[in-house]
Amino acid sequence: MNLRLSYLICATPRCGSNLLCEALQNTGLAGIPGEYFWDEARWTRKWGTANYTDYLHEVIKRSTTKNCVFGTKVMWGYFDVFVSRVRETPEYGRQNGSSHELLARLFPGLRYIWITRRDKVRQAVSFWKSLQTLVWFSKAGIDPPPPRKEPVYSFEAIDHFVQEVVMHEAAWQAYFDRHAIVPFTVIYEDLASAYEATALKILDWLGLSYPPDLVFGPRLLQKQADDVSEIWVERYRKEKRERGRLGAPHSPFPETTWSRMPD
């Protein structure tokens, strides 16, 4: 498929990237962005692709709208693995160059959209809850799967994820700086209150024309935060003040990989 424009949504877990993907898809003009570079084995089995080049072509085919605009998203936590796999393909990795140059060969007309969330505590609480329940999203009219287990509060876990998000966002910023990239920045809290307006601003930034009476597809994603989320947020903030320090001395979680930055 001949792409004329591509974009990469740069994200961290529970930052609102699913909502952004839905908003852009609902324009009908900005690709069909999804998250295909995490748990690739599942999609490989479903699609029956023979190798990674075929897999990349399938992602592009499924994520491109009729006007030849492609979109996808990726988290910093596995961005380096994704870049490495692309670099190993004979079709895209045969030339030297930076990771940005590599991705620009794969995704013609590449632009970057960076989505971030102001409230890192709520982001970390959302991540910790979803990791335990394995319920990652909820859509109107569709019953969500039952939670794997009832989530349990943990200061150490939430604090770990707060710090991890900050580090991953710093790594994204360093990547942009290194390659002189100026992304379109989306703030989740603004997106939630200005869903269609934010998507239209991105269409303008991408240089895509649209009718003044553009009709969006239905907004299906539902807010997952609940009373338990709010109780955890306030409990964490209270404990953080009481502890009066940056974080727990012994995190029960492995070190992050944020510092492994592609060139």
Describe, in short, the structure shown.
With about 260 residues, the protein is an alpha/beta fold. It is about 45% helix and about 10% strand. Strands 2-1-3-4 form a 4-stranded parallel β-sheet.
Structure, explained:
This protein is of the alpha/beta class and 263 residues long. It has helices spanning 17-25, 40-47, 52-62, 76-87, 99-106, 120-133, 155-178, 188-193, 195-206, 227-243; strands at residues 5-11, 69-75, 110-116, 184-187. The protein has a 4-stranded parallel beta sheet.
Side by side, the strands of the main sheet go 2-1-3-4
Number of strands: 4
List the total number of helices: 10
What gap, in angstroms, lies between the N and C termini? 28 Å
Taking all Cα atoms into account, the compactness measure Rg is 19 Å
What string gives the helices and strands in order?
EHHHEHHEHHEHHH
| SSE-based structural type | alpha/beta
State the helical fraction: 40-55%
Query: What about the largest sheet?
Result: 4 strands, parallel
Strand portion: 5-15%
Shape: globular
Low-confidence stretches: 246-261
Mean of pLDDT: 90
